[in-house]
Each structure stands twice: as C-alpha cells, then as structure tokens.
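Q: Start with the shorter request: fold the first protein.
A: Done. Sequence, then structure:
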Amino acid sequence: MTDLIYYITFFILTLFVSLYLNGYLNRLFIGNKLTDPIKERSSHNYPATRSGGLSVFFAICVASAFGVATNELSFPLYVLLSVFFMTLTGFADDLIEVRYREKLFLQLFAGILMIQSGYYIDSFHGIFGVYELPYWFSVFVSLFVFVVVLNSLKLIDGLDGLASFLSIKFFLVAGGIVLIADSKLFLFFPIILGALIGFLSFNFNRDKKVFLGDTGSLFLGSIMSFLIFYILDTENSIITDSFISRPFLTVLMLIYPLVDTLRAFTIRAYRNQSPFVADRIHLHHRLVDKGYEHWQASVLIFILSSLILFLNCLLFLSIGLIGGICFTLLLLALFYSIFFK
C-alpha cells in the first residue's frame, strides 16, 4: 500500500507540473511568435505551438529529480545522455529544421551512447532459430532498431493524441514488465504517464493547442528504444517469458508505428519519392478523410493496436510464433478492410 501511495503521489505531481508547463510554454512560444504554421495539412485554425515535447521533458525531469533524491529511482548514465541528446536534437529540429542526413548521424551517435549503458539487443531469443548474437552484430541490430523506433514514432505523429495514446499503451505494458524485474526503475512509469496525460489536455485544446513536435517524438522514441533494449537483453529476467516471445512482444507493443511506417515507405519507394516526404498516405489520414475527428481516429487506433496485443498474449501458447504472426497479419488485413479501406 505504501508503494502504491508513492506511485500515485508521483503521478499526480507530474500531472500538475505538466499541466502548468504546457500552459506556460504555450504562452511563452506564442508571445515570441514561435507558432506552428497553418498549412493545408494542418489540423488547427488557431495559433498552436510545438512546445508539448519540451513541457513533457521538463515535467519528467522535475519529478525524476525528486525520485532520484529519495533513492527510489535510478537511471543508467549513458541512457540519460542518449535521451537528453535526442531531446536537444528534436528541439533544434523544431526551431530550425535539421536536415535528415545530419539528423540520422545524430540518431546513430545517440544510439551508440545508449549501447554504452550495457543494454542492447544481444539475442533473438529463438527467432529464426537464433539466440546469442556476436557483439558486432548486436550493435548493428540495436542501432537499426533505435533509428527505426525514433523515426516511426515521429512519422505517425500526425493526429492530435495519436503518438501520446500509443506511447501510453507502450509504457503501460513496459511498466508491467519492469515492475517485476526492476523496482528501482518502475517509478519512472507513473511519472511519464502523468506528463503525457497533462500534455493531452492541451493537445486536444482548440484555443491553446500544443503539439509534441520533434522534441517530444524523439524524446519518447529514445525512451521506448531503451525499454526495448531492456526487454531484449538476456541479462534481464522478464515475467512474460513464460507465455510469449520477447521479440514478438516488442513488435506488438509498437505494431501501429511499425506497420504504418513500413507501408508509407513502401508506397513512397514505389512512387520514386523520398521516404521522408510529407504527405497524407498514412493510415490515420485515411480515417480523417473518412470523417473521423482526430480524437476518434486516435482512440480507434489505440483500441485496435491494444486488441492485437491482448489477443496475441492470450493465444500465443496455443498457436506459437508462426501462428501468432499469421494471426496478426490476418487481424491487420481485417481491420484495414473494415476501418481504413
């Protein structure tokens, strides 16, 4: 009960800090004319700012500082450096639009920093019949996953609430895993959930609209990457090992960003376009074009992706990995034909 009160206290603390910072930075950005331009693809008709990521970042920093001071929370140093570096990169991109080649180099550098923490993908846990990986290949795979997760979250951040809802789903599942494995890290999850919920109240606000921006998507994406490394690292004992494959679980936790990004890249390659061009071919844009409000489309994607995860966890012991992959592909095709086609 004492631990539960502690977690609730930090959740409420971060929630109120996030609410305050989102409002304060929104006013500060508007006062300095740092607003998001209204374009044909924009979802807003009133001044909006990309200050949400910075607000979430600062709110988490404040609450985490209290957690570390009370010796109830700890982070590996190199993970902190990597996350901070990616957050600064996102902030610079929001202000001056960093070119993609430079951004990719910075992402690879941040990925190398994170690997120095000792957490990386050192095993496929039986996928393709492969278990332990050579160190050089572990580094290559980890960097690839790091870059993919960062950019997939950034690319799907096109609807109000979508990136936040999917991040909340990810952190709820990851938090359940970490709660059993590492109590010193679990306090971070009520903190980040409080920060995201505080942001959502402004993200859906018509007159004081706030976006995550690249600051927020790269910040959240780098944390997700670390947690994927944590889950896939063989030195960590994971409670889910008894009923589902670790690599398959991590894919299911990020099923929508991965599928939507792969689909968008494939279509752009077919059209001989840059894979990073801004357009409206994402699945969530199809929902908006069909008449869904932003919050409706975001909630629907959250529910569908959560359902895929839940059903696979429920059935995995009966159908196995190959059966789980086929079942997931069947669900994706079914959901596409019903909701997105």
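Q: Next, the second protein, separately.
A: Sequence, then structure:
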Amino acid sequence: MTAPPRAGDDLLRRWRVLAAADEPDLFEGALLVSLLVDPAEDLEAARRDMEGLVDRVRRSAFGASVDALRRVLFDEEGFRGDRDGYDDPSNSSVARVLARKRGMPITLSIVTVEVGRRAGIAVEGVGLPGHFVVGGPALGGAYLDPFDGGVVGDPEQLARRLATIFGAPVALGDDALHPDSNRDILARVLLNLRRSWEKRHRWEEALSALDFSDALVPPDSDRVKERGLLLLRGGRREEGVTVLERWAAGVGEDDAEAAARLVAAARGGSDAGDAPASPRVFTLDEARGLMPRVQEITAAAVERYGKLAGEDERREVAEAWVKELMALGLEIKGLWLVDFDSGAGYYCWKYPEKELGHFHSYEEGFAGRLPLT
C-alpha cells in the first residue's frame, strides 16, 4: 500500500533549521505549523497582521502596557476562544487565528505574547494542565486569559477556571505557574494538532505533526508508541508493528506485559480496522462512574497475577487485563496504571488507589500528576 504524501520535504527542512536553534522563534515556528494545517496559508498576510497589531499597541494612549495590549486585541479586535469548534485543526494555526480572531488557548496566547513582546511588554506564555494563559512581569503576578477575551485574574481565580475544565478543583503548585519556553509551547501546539487530526482519523496528517515534534524534541517512549499506533490506524501495519516492537523492547519490567499485549494485538490485525481502538473521551463523572468496574477488573487480575510464578502465565493475566480495559476506552500506561482521556489531559489511576483522584496533562506522565481536590 502506498502511503499518502505527508508534510513536504522542504517544509520539514525549514522546520528542522528552526528547531536546531537554542531557542526557536515562537512566531515563525507557529507559522510553519500553520503550513501543516494548510499548505496554501498566506504567511505574509499573517506577518502583516502581526505588525499592524504591534504598531497599534505601541501607539496606544495607554503606552506599552497590558492595558494597551488588552484594549487592542480583545476590546477592539475581539480576539476570543472558539468555543464551537474548539479542537478544529484550524485553531492550531496561528495564521488562521490572526485572520479569524478565534482560536484555542495556546494559539491565542502565542498571538498575545508575540504582540506584547514586540511592543516592549514583558509577557510570557504559561502552560497549565488543560489550559494556557499569559503571565510575566508586566502582569505582576496576575494572569491574562486570551480564551476568555483577555480577562485578568490572580492564581486563585485561575485555579477556579481550571476546576470548570476538569470538573473538580485542582491543586496548583508553584511549578505549574512557571512560564514555558518557546520550544515547549511549540511542542504543545503540535500535540494539540495531532490530537485534533487523530479524532478525525486523519492519520497521515497526524504523522506529519509527529515528524515535526520529533525534530523539535527527541521522541520519548510514549511518542514512539504513538507513531506505531498511527501507522497501524493508517493501514501501514508492517511499519506500525516494527515501531511498536522497538517501543516494547525499551519499556521497563513493570510495563513489559502491557507492551507485549499491545504488540500481539498489532501483529494479529490484518488491516487498520483490527488495530487497537482509539481511546474515548470521558467527563470526570463518566470516568468516576466507570471506576467500580475498572477496580473490579484490576483487583481480580492482581490477585490472579500474584498467585502465579511462571512468567508466561503472568503475561497471559496481564494481557487479558489490558484487553478488557482497552475495550472500555482506557489507555494503558503501565502495569495496573490507566488513564482516561478528558480531552484536555488525562484522569489517572493506579491500583490500589481508592478513587480516581489525579490529573496530568498530555505532555506529562505519572510523575506530573496533580491531585483533584
């Protein structure tokens, strides 16, 4: 089977040059991502739009200030979050966001930060689990939310905003409020774009975004696994199995059974329809409603596993556990460790925890969990 074309070689070369810098240019990097979304995008028009906004902020009666930034972007231009088509791929394109004045939190924040920096206002992007805002010295410890039309609030108000996203209060530590680097911001844009294309079963486009991600930040185990699954779902089974076998060979001992089960499922499939199913998206209530069943299945598997001494028998128990929970739409992240995709990150549970009480972003794993309070 011949694979459909992915991102052009020239675009990928341009991206690799940008990614090789000590700190990639945020706006130019975001424009190259815009070409992933639409190869015909007019980047010069986006650059002109940006310069026009910067000039207006500089000439504002408020001077080079957050008030001037808010007045131009949110009061006069009406930049807002796209609540109707939140995860549409176009919302990962800064060029489209500049043209439509609508976007997702991270791309709206990129526009805000870039206009502010060029106008001499000290603002920075702050990535949170499931959300993205603008902070920095010019805000004096407060945070500006471009998705909500430039509303400014303190950390306590920000925590309340996150609670509406997760369905429960989240304990935010000081580390969560640190600014993100340009490289981290671009990596997160690409992750959002991959998720958007995956939901639409546009596997080759998702692989193009993954190529960009791997050039920006060396792939970890999760991204190697992701590549294998995308290849499977795109009908490229032989390539997908090869990548998953490489991934499984590098996982730790605790994850070996789950990895072996996934590889076995991939080998057994004859086409894309036999690949492991795409995970479902859960609200917190839906995830917690499923927890009694997840706990029951896992507790029974742990008990059987503990009574067996043979490696092959233990693997069979672990593989059966993986199969049951994947059928429920969960993602398996390790032995007795599962994630529920919320659409903004993962609700995370590990046996023998009594309840589903943690959340982490797509970028972070178990070590980056935050408690749901």
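Q: Describe the second briefly.
A: The two ends are 50 Å apart (CA to CA). The chain has three domains: 9-182, 219-273, 284-371.
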